[in-house]
Each structure stands twice: as structure tokens, then as C-alpha cells.
Design a protein that fits this description.
The chain is α/β, with parallel strands linked by helices and 204 residues long. The chain is built from 4 helices and 12 strands, in the order βββββαβαβαβαββββ. Bound molecules: zinc ion. Zinc ion binds next to strand 4.
């Protein structure tokens, strides 16, 4: 495959220990957000020499992909919205990026951000499955469901159960001006994990 690239658009959310937070619903053995720790300070005067930092993070922190085994109200995004936007053009095997610009003002994952986030209705989730998309990317809170949904994280769990990879915590989708682009978001090569952070970019 050859790629003619005009530009690379970074659609990854910053991983900032001071401005990132996720829900910790019941069932967690311990909380872990995204924290950075200095393991070894500079070993020479004036900040010279080696410094070593480590991070504590969920595999779901920041832009990431959820493997299909992943078990996990503002404005509804319905199947009619999706049909109107891309119904005539979508093809089996496509990766669908859902743009709302909600994460362009990401505030660390506050209740306000979560509650104001758009969500996919159950019908929209089923639309994605019926169209044969293989990845659904979100620039809004992927954990929101329509009122009365049968379980928490219903839409992302349903997609996962159908083998569709979810890619939450994206941003900058408004910078994409073309209809079809190349999405790159390589997961880390971690064995036995249910998710992985990615550096997601779009080539246009
Ligand atoms: Zn996740």
C-alpha cells in the first residue's frame, strides 16, 4: 500500500496528570488514574544527570483502544443521525470516527463533562454493528448511554461483544476536513491486556 500524505493530524488527548480523570465505579479493587512519580532525582548539580520517572495508569487512560473482551445525558446520537451523516458512503470494514468536538474542551473528566457528553443510543449502536464497522472512535465520553439502558457502559459493551474495537478519548476531529482518511492508532504490544493506550493520528 502506498500512502500520499499531505498532513498528519494528531487526534490524541494529552495525558496530563493534572488534568485527567476517569470514573471509578463499584467493583474496583483500587483506584488508578494517570499519575507520574519521580523514581530517581537528577544525580548532578543544577538539574543535570539522569532523572527517571514512572507512571501509574489504567490501560484505559487517554486515547486508547478496547479489545473486544472489554466489559465495561446530554444529546443523543441516533441511528438516523448516523444514517444522514454517512449512511450513503459507509462500507463494511470501515472505521468510524464520531465527531462532536466535546473533548476539545476536555476538563479532566468532571461530572459536568460526563453529563454534558453526547451518547450513542441503542439504535445507533445497532446501526454501527449492522453496517459492519470495525472500530468506533469517540471524541466524547464513551461511557454515556441513553436513559434506561439495560446496563452500565451498554453501548461500548455491546460493540465489544460484536468484535468492534472502541477507541475513546479522541480529540481534534474538527481538524479533519476530508471524508475518508487513514487512521493510525497502534496499541502497545502488551500480553494479556484488555486495552492499550494508543497515539492516534489521522493521515490526510
Ligand atoms: Zn476503555
Amino acid at each position: 500500500m502506498s500512502l500520499a500524505i499531505e498532513k498528519i493530524i494528531d487526534i490524541s488527548l494529552e495525558l496530563d496528570p493534572k488534568n485527567f480523570g476517569m470514573r471509578t465505579p463499584a467493583g474496583f479493587k483500587k483506584d488508578m488514574q494517570f499519575e507520574m512519580e519521580i523514581l530517581k532525582e537528577h544525580d548532578a548539580p543544577g538539574g543535570a544527570g539522569q532523572i527517571v520517572r514512572g507512571v501509574h495508569m489504567r490501560l484505559h487512560a487517554g486515547s486508547h483502544v478496547d479489545a473486544p473482551e472489554h466489559k465495561m445525558p446530554a444529546k443523543a446520537i441516533t441511528e438516523n443521525d448516523l444514517e444522514r451523516a454517512v449512511g450513503a458512503r459507509i462500507r463494511t470494514g470501515d472505521r468510524l470516527l464520531l465527531r462532536t468536538d466535546h473533548n476539545n474542551a476536555y476538563d479532566g473528566g468532571s461530572d459536568k463533562w460526563m453529563k454534558a457528553s453526547p451518547y450513542l443510543t441503542i439504535g445507533a449502536t445497532e446501526w454501527c454493528i449492522s453496517k459492519g464497522v470495525v472500530i468506533v472512535g469517540y471524541d466524547f465520553y464513551h461511557g454515556n448511554d441513553e436513559p434506561g439502558a439495560p446496563r452500565v457502559f451498554h453501548n461500548s459493551r455491546t460493540l465489544s461483544e460484536h468484535g468492534i474495537v472502541t477507541m475513546p478519548y479522541l480529540k481534534n476531529l474538527d481538524r479533519i476536513t476530508k471524508d475518508r482518511v487513514t487512521l493510525i492508532g497502534f496499541p502497545l504490544n502488551i500480553i494479556g491486556a484488555e486495552a492499550s493506550p494508543v497515539r492516534a493520528v489521522v493521515l490526510t
